[in-house]
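Priority: medium. Attachment 1 of 2:
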């Protein structure tokens, strides 16, 4: 079967003192790539979790490895009747599903963890 679908994806504009649109869109791209593993799921929305959340979670994100910067995105997605890989609710809708990403020296964002915080 094919992986996660993102044809009807809405990306909410970022409002941040920390990150530029470019930083954000690079993180969005990383999430889209990571979402491909969510079989039978459709990604409907991605947004920035906000500067406050990012500052609060910074230490946690950086604990995943040799990184100097972390960002948190939120997503909404729907699940087909098979429940994705079986760990998700069949025909369910998930909102505010978190994606925690990290990078070093302005490099590529890497997903360090995802789910409900």
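Attachment 2 of 2:
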């Amino acid at each position: 079967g094919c992986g996660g679908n993102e044809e009807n994806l809405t990306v909410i504009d970022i409002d941040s003192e920390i990150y530029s649109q470019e930083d954000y869109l690079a993180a969005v791209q990383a999430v889209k790539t990571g979402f491909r593993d969510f079989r039978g799921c459709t990604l409907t929305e991605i947004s920035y979790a906000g500067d406050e959340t990012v500052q609060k979670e910074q230490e946690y994100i950086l604990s995943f490895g040799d990184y100097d910067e972390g960002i948190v995105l939120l997503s909404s997605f729907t699940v087909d009747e098979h429940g994705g890989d079986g760990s998700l609710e069949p025909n369910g809708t998930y909102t505010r599903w978190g994606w925690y990403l990290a990078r070093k020296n302005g490099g590529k964002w890497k997903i360090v963890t995802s789910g409900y915080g």
